[in-house]
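Field reference: "sequence" (input) and "structure" (output). Example, Lon protease homolog, mitochondrial:
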Amino acid sequence: MLRVLSNSCLKHRFQTHTSKLLPSNGGDNKGPLLRILNSIRSSNEKNTSFYIKRVFFCSDSSDGSGNSSSSSSVVEVEAEAAVENVEEIDSKSSSVVIVSTNPRPEDYLEVLAIPLSHRPLFPGFYMPVNVKDPKMLAALVESRKRHAPYAGAFLVKDEPGTDPSIGSEAEKNISDLKGKELYDRLHEVGTLAQITNIQGDLVVLMGHRRLRMTEMVTDDPLTVKVDHLKDKQYNKDDDILKATSFEVISTLRDVLKTSSLWRDHVQTYTQHIGDFTYPRLADFGAAISGANKSKCQEVLEELDVHERLRLTLELVKKEMEISKIQEAIAKAIEEKISGEQRRYLLNEQLKAIKKELGLETDDKTALSAKFRERLEPKKEKCPPHVLQVIEEELTKLQLLEASSSEFNVTRTYLDWLTALPWGSYSDENFDVHRAQTILDEDHYGLTDVKERILEFIAVGKLRGTSQGKIICLSGPPGVGKTSIGRSIARALNRKFYRFSVGGLADVAEIKGHRRTYIGAMPGKMVQCLKNVETSNPLVLIDEIDKLGRGHAGDPASALLELLDPEQNANFLDHYLDVPIDLSKVLFVCTANVVEMIPNPLLDRMEVISIAGYITDEKMHIARDYLEKTTREACGITPEQVEVKEAAFLALIESYCREAGVRNLQKQIEKIYRKIALQLVREAGPDETSQVQVAEADEDKKSLDVSGESSIEGKAINAESKESVVGVQATETSSEAEQIHSDLPCDKIQVDSKENIAEASEPMEKAQETDRSATIKKVTIDESNLSDYVGKPVFQAERIYEQTPIGVVMGLAWTAMGGSTLYIETTHVEQGDGKGALHATGQLGDVMKESSQIAHTVARAILLGKEPDNSFFANSKLHLHVPAGATPKDGPSAGCTMITSMLSLAMKKPVKKDLAMTGEVTLTGKILPIGGVKEKTIAARRSGVKTVIFPSANRRDFDELAANVKEGLEVHFVEDYEQIFKLAFADD
Ligand SMILES: Nc1ncnc2c1ncn2[C@@H]1O[C@H](COP(=O)(O)OP(=O)(O)OP(=O)(O)O)[C@@H](O)[C@H]1O
């Protein structure tokens, strides 16, 4: 079947062959199909792989329209075969070629069946197939050599029950299939494919026409008998067919707009739209769509052109949807990427601009420069170990990525390290006289505290330096512990920093968190130093007795390290991690109850107790300090108000009996607030609102009189309702108007509106004089005090003018200061051997025990005094301590209880205006008690004349200021006998 021809011969043959098969168009090679053919030929000469890359649409299927013209595919295939032959021959000899005398495709009725795993092959399309079966491959090579390069390509059916999406598995299974088994798995309808190229096991096929397998001929390699299928007849001019095809075309055009994937195919198609028939269009659409293999096979098997087009339309529409989604995804991603890129670009540009303008070097360098600048003035005094840490951290900062979290940690750490006042101290003032003046300026009394501070300053002056000390101010609320702390700082010229440790349970608050924690912060002391900017501040630790008990770590122990002068020279904060010197800090703590302070802490403190104020002291504080500050705070002048002594006294006695003066301060503020309101009310409305009111009034008036005044052009007499302002202006006439203003002090006539401004100055003066004349001074005395502060809250502490039988006044100490209390005893019933004691009044265990002791001692004493008196043996007693709602405890009422029981037993009341306190032993000895000052103050407040204290408390009493002790007859006793004599003396 081969003939050897010369080169020129081949050329001639090729041209003749193509021109014979092509529809005649003048032989000018201008027909679209020929143009493509030529382009392929020329490309092929350069590169044979062209066919694999570019899919060429050239179905040869003779269309069902009965068009008998030679199909382009035949032309193309033959031309291509010829070109290949040329190549083959060229490789051997440039002078000879082999010309094929092959049968036409439709002559192939027995073909090798190549299984296709992914998609069916559509006529006109190329498909590279990996042929794994060596026998099949050999047969294909052989048939190509024999110039019978056609085979059947059949899609493999999915194995029943397998997932069609697992392609590789399916492929593996197919290569194992042989003979009958393979035959059964192949779809009946396939494509006659031309073998265009074989490289290794890669066989490039080009689809030609539809086939149907009829029977198996040989099993290995699988050869089958086939029927060549023809499309059903159709009417080319059918409208529905046309419409469907146009829809397919327009959809393909849309796909082209959005997806570049199939642009080549669509372009090729649209360029040569005239050459394509409906069946080709259907095949083309189905082939380029991404539909799955079964859908594609459906199209391949469909011989009805109309139905095939419809199926294809479905597929391309789906393709369109997919490409839309693809476009949306691409757009979203692109937007995201471009946004980030834009930001990055702008940032970089900004940096570059700043650098160029010398505004800033890069971030890290700027930061380092900032820290170095901050450190520079302190460098001399900064300890070397701290300098070293700062240097290390600065180097680290340069190495870290600016966006990393560690960078931020290092930056914050450096911020703290460089912000601390390393080695900087405020100049202390050791002038004792100045300090005394400052302390007296701020607080009345408190001589103990002031004396202690002055001693401290004196020592500092002699030594030339003051050492950190811990002073603990203890006392009831509102006695001025916190405010004296502030005064001490002022007197010493130290910076003041206050923090409260009430309820503090977290050690980290004092010692800081470790830097490894997120949001770590240094402790209170480091915060204090940063805040005050000196290393020797006065730190007031408030409410140290209310320190919480931590779950992890004990805050008291942490405070110990902070306060202990031995340890705090090298205080180590967890966050800072470098020792800091706190030895120059002066610590002042405040507490209400010293007993509540943890012992190791208390041990290191110098406790100064502030007992509370007596009426006299409160009077001074109220008049000279509280009233003054409150008056200033309310913006009231001394001329406007007078608070009489009697009012203060009533306030202190009936409203504010507690030890401190905070409540007194509140009451004085209340009075002044009320006075302020009263003054403002009396002064009347302010000028702006007066003018507004006046204008409103005038508008109203002018409306009333406008008719008359405009006609007659007469002056309007306007009399101000408000005597203070009394100026009214009207605009009712075009003529000059006269305004008459009536003022109580001065009569001002204004001729025109402009004159109003000029007149306002003397008016203001007049108002001022008027105000001071009209506002009379507010005086507060005992009689009108309740108008300002309400009804008195305290009833007299004294229930009895003269205590009856069985009742004795005792003295008690509370956190709020001292107070007097009564102990009452009465007998419930009498009878032989009925002697017993029942105690009430919310007594604590100690007080209950104390009452039992008192019962025993009283019985013993009575036995000594009146041996025949069997009162205690035969009486059931009830002892009560009012007020019943207040819990009470402690042993100091022991002697009072005995006296009360003896009074009942002997049916004799105790001496008038007597109060006593003291713990009693079973043998009748009197033991010392606490709170002497508070109890003395309480006794005086209750109008007691005689007080009995244990003799062990004499020292405490002697230390009291003379004004506290004034007017009291005090007895110090060691034994109950002495009390007995004092209480039941027959004077
Ligand atoms: N001796 C005093 N002279 C003048 N003012 C005083 C005196 N004592 C207390 N004050 C005033 O009383 C008010 C309350 O005092 P401060 O707050 O210091 O009480 P505190 O003892 O710290 O109370 P707490 O225990 O409740 O904290 C302050 O305004 C203070 O100025």
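Confidence is low (pLDDT under 50) at residues 1-100, 702-760.
The first strand starts at residue 3 and ends at 6.
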